[in-house]
Amino acid sequence: MGVSVFAPASVANLAVGYDTLGLCLDGPGDEVYAEFCDTPGITIASIEGDGGKLPLIPAKNTAGRAAQAVLEAVGNVRTGVSLKIHKKMPFGSGMGSSSASAVAGAMAVNELLDRPFSKYELLKFTAMGEQVADGAWHLDNVAPSLLGGIVLVRDGLTLDVQSIPVPDGLRVCVVHPDIEILTKDSRAILSDSVLLGDVIKQQSNLGGLIIGLYNNDLELISRSFKDHIIEPQRSKLIPHFYELQSEAFDLGALGCSISGAGPSVFAFCPNADVAENCGVAISSIWAKHGITCQVHQSGINPVGAKVI
Ligand code: HSE
Fold first, then answer.
1. Is residue 183 annotated as part of the catalytic site, yes or no?
2. For residue 93, how far is its CA from the centre of ligand 1 (angstroms)?
3. Which residue among 141, 151, 174 has the greatest number of ligand 1 atoms within 8 angstroms of its CB, and so is best to mutate?
4. 48 catalytically annotated
5. Which end of the chain is less enclosed by CB atoms within 10 A, N or C?
6. What is the pLDDT of residues 247-257, one digit of tens each?
């Protein structure tokens, strides 16, 4: 008898918090089923929904690596766990696909072993899994996917993550065009140097966004939702980005930016009607230019990964 865990998609960065902010979506997400087996260590028995692209070698697979890290930390070298991974979201989408697998893998093994670690303690193992995908140590997808809500990563190395309150009724619309951008490529185009004036604007907006979320001040959230550093560099990877961003603002979105490393974009909306309208408008703009896409409507999921 095994355990299945669902880990949701997430939106990282939230425009002004590169590698720092992330939020948890209701769906889509990935599932991992874990059960004991005779072979010591982690074995990946099967992967569905990946089109044969993901490695079955646990150390090279985000779910497998995160699961290994949990098992190693428990220290019982004879225990064997077999995983079945169900990818239910696209790669290179900017919705935290590799993170969702890492979170589901770590949590499924933890549940199978009768929870030696708290959810928060799993964060380190999920980040080790995520690192397999892009070589970087960033928690802005794994933390919200695991813990739910909107999360600020104050310091990734010490796993100092803080939950931020979410005003009632906020909705997020994520639109995923049928284009693949790998996170490592989207990170590689970023300049190492940043103008001091842009840092000042960015940190002011990051502070403003967080105060707005704490105080339920939608106008402050909206004024703060402007990325002066990352979006100007990455927008060139996303066809017609400024056209669809402008349309989302016209329709009442509080913010609209690139979801994680792209190519998905998201609209941060005060209610479900605005989110629906943004989804229709953004997908219509892309359709007009011959780009197909999928629209995901979601609240901000307060729970994160869960046993199913
Ligand atoms: N913060 C990361 C990035 C998220 O933007 O590269 C990747 O999903």
1. yes
2. 11
3. 141
4. no
5. N
6. 999 999 999 99
| Active-site residue, selected from the candidate residues 20, 183, 231, 247 | 183
**Tens-place pLDDT, residues 72-88:** 999 988 999 999 999 99
Dist. CA 8–CA 30, nearest whole Å: 7
Q: By CB neighbour count within 10 A (0-12 exposed, 13-18 middle, 19+ buried), where does 31 fall? A: buried
Whether residue 28 is preceded by a cis peptide bond, meaning omega within 30 degrees of 0, is yes
- Write out the CATH class of domain 3-165+303-307: alpha beta
Q: Per residue in 265-297, pLDDT tens? A: 999 999 999 999 999 999 999 999 999 999 999
Enumerate residues lining ligand 1, CB below 6 A: 12-13, 18-19, 96, 138, 140-141, 183, 186-187, 260-261
CA 113 – ligand 1 centroid, Å = 31
How far is it, in rounded angstroms, from Cα 15 to Cα 36?
A: 42
Q: Give the number of the atom of ligand 1 that is nearest the alpha carbon of residue 94.
A: 8
Q: Confidence class of residue 207 from pLDDT cuts 50, 70 and 90?
A: very high
**CA of 77 relative to ligand 1 center, distance in Å:** 34
Q: Where are the domains of the chain?
A: 3-165+303-307, 171-298
The pLDDT value recorded for residue 153 is: 98
Looking at 142-235, list the stretches that DSSP marks H as alpha helix, in order from N- to C-terminal side: 142-147, 183-188, 196-215, 218-224, 231-234
Superfamily covering domain 171-298: GHMP kinase, C-terminal domain (3.30.70.890)
